[in-house]
Amino acid sequence: MPRLTSSDLAAESVRIGFRQYLAANPWPIMLTTEWPRPLLQCLFFTLLGQVTAGEAGGRFAFVGSVAMIMMLNTVVGVGDVPAGEKWFGTFYRLQMAGTPPAGAFALRAIPWTVQGLVTALLCLAIVGPVTGHGDVSLALLPTLPIFVLMAVTSTAAGLAAASPAIGRRADVVVSNGLVYLVITAGGLLVPAGRAPLLDVVGAVLPIRHGVLAVRGYLDGGPWLGEAALELIVGIGWGVLAAVLYRRQATRARATGSDDYA
Amino acid sequence: MSRTVDRLLTAAGVLATSARIQIAEMRSSTIVIVFTFVQPAALLAVTLLPMDGRTPQRVAGVVFGVLLTAFWTATVWGAASVLRRDRAMGTLARSMTGVVDARLVVVGKGLGSSLVTVVLVGVTIALVLLVMRQPVALAHPVWLVVGMLTVLASGAAVGLLVGSIFVLTRYGPQVSSVLMYPVFLLGGMLIPPEVLPAAVRWVSYGISMRWLQQFLVGAAAGHVSLPALGAAIALTVAYAVAGAAMFSRFVARARRDATLDVF
After folding, report:
1. ipTM exceeds 0.85, yes or no
2. A109 Cβ contact list (under 8 Å, min separation 6)
3. Fewer C-beta within 10 Å: chain A N or C terminus?
4. Residue of B181, B190, B192 with shortest CB distance to A40
């Protein structure tokens, strides 16, 4: 049997990721729950912004909500990738394969990143026109590369958050906690400058700088600097995830806790 | 006569024991932290911080809106997780085929879950308001307690109604997650029905949370709306009756198809 090359292994990891995703979320479930939920969440927060701060508040909240709903997949959902190894007791096999777990998880996480982007596009196509922000949806189209960047950076943060939490049965709290932290401190619904403490916390969170870049572009102001900051924050979360999974793998080998128990 | 009293005492005992079990289970459930601390604190912050002109009366509307929103989240998620946990532990079939009516167990667990949720969310909201130094109007405390007791009963009735769906499906978490937002949007808690299109506005009349929000906000501002309380109680009774009928029907179906323990 020919030896698999690195690119074969990478392709296989991505393929497993998509099969794993579709097994957990078959098409009927995707159409009836996985897509409607982000649409409804985006609609809810857009209307909430409108109720609390008028038309301008609704417009502000719509932009933030489109970015926010990606995290349902890229932060909350992506935790299932490493958690699946615990549920099914298969982490030891990954260890035996010699492939770095962090790399394998990152590749298997791609479907969640893609799904996050798909749901953002659905919100632009449906929630924008429904809430009277169809013009904002159109204006956001040129910023899609920034949304791709945010989907990747938030996936890195989601994987990093899942790592220490899984063994302690705290993955739900940590991933949801991170999402709500970004919702509160990420400048998605609360304009920057309203609460200095939130601004300080938000500076190291994913999504925040990306959304600021998007708002800068919409307002015709500078945006490249914030986009670069989003990239730097994302790299930081990615490095943290790699370190955490590497440490976890080393410790699992030493202590025999392959299932994160 | 004494048999009736015995049956009532047995039912009360089952309700109390089920509530106690549910409270004990919630102590080891990490998702409770999300629904009772993280979500209400975040919702309160993102609603109050961008708001201009925060009067104590307007803040009371947000406070009860957040409380009922978090309560609805916990109720739907709780109904799904109770049955999912029973199924995973292999105790669902035993509950459904035991000598005690399974609906009492589900209602008891629902009451336990509702009680813990209301208390913890209330504490969270109080802490956030303290940190923000935000005054809130609470004009009629006694009527507010009456309203909160109705909230507890409504949560248990909805738990029975929604829980019956989870007897049939293995996708409880996904279904419960999609059930949350329609009520967030149409339930009149944080989004006033007036801002919704007229074509869907009428839906809120059938949601008890809408009337409870109206009653609680009114009582907080000094205007007790008994028709709103009456509507909430009537809907709660309707949920309980429909839930009891649906639950029996779905359990009979699951038993006939031998799918009670299929996970």
Report:
1. no
2. A17, A78, A81, A155, A158, A159
3. N
4. B181
For residues A108-122, give the mean pLDDT: 96
Q: Model confidence over A207-222: pLDDT tens digits?
A: 999 999 999 999 999 9
Nearest-by-CA chain A residue for B47: A52
- CA A3 from centre of chain: 34
Q: Which residues of A touch B190 (CB under 8 A)?
A: 48, 51
Q: Provide φ and ψ at A78, rounded to 5°.
A: -65, -20
pTM above 0.90, yes or no: no
Q: Mean pLDDT throughout B84-99?
A: 75
Do residues B218 and B228 lie in contact, with contact meaning Cβ atoms separated by under 8 Å? yes
Q: Which residue has the tokens 């991933």?
A: A175
- pLDDT bin (cut points 50, 70, 90) of residue A23 is confident
- Closest to B42 (Cβ–Cβ): which among A32, A57, A184? A184
CA dist B179 and B197 (Å) reads: 20
Confidence of residue A205 (pLDDT cuts 50, 70, 90): very high
- The answer to whether the beta carbons of residues A162 and A183 sit under 8 Å apart is no
Print burial letters for A97-127: b (CB count within 10 Å at least 16), e (below 16).
eebebbbbbbbbbbbbbbbbbbbbbbbbeeb
Backbone angles phi, psi at B257, to 5 degrees: -85, -5
Cβ atoms A112, A21 nearer than 8 A: yes
Q: Which residue type occupies A98?
A: G
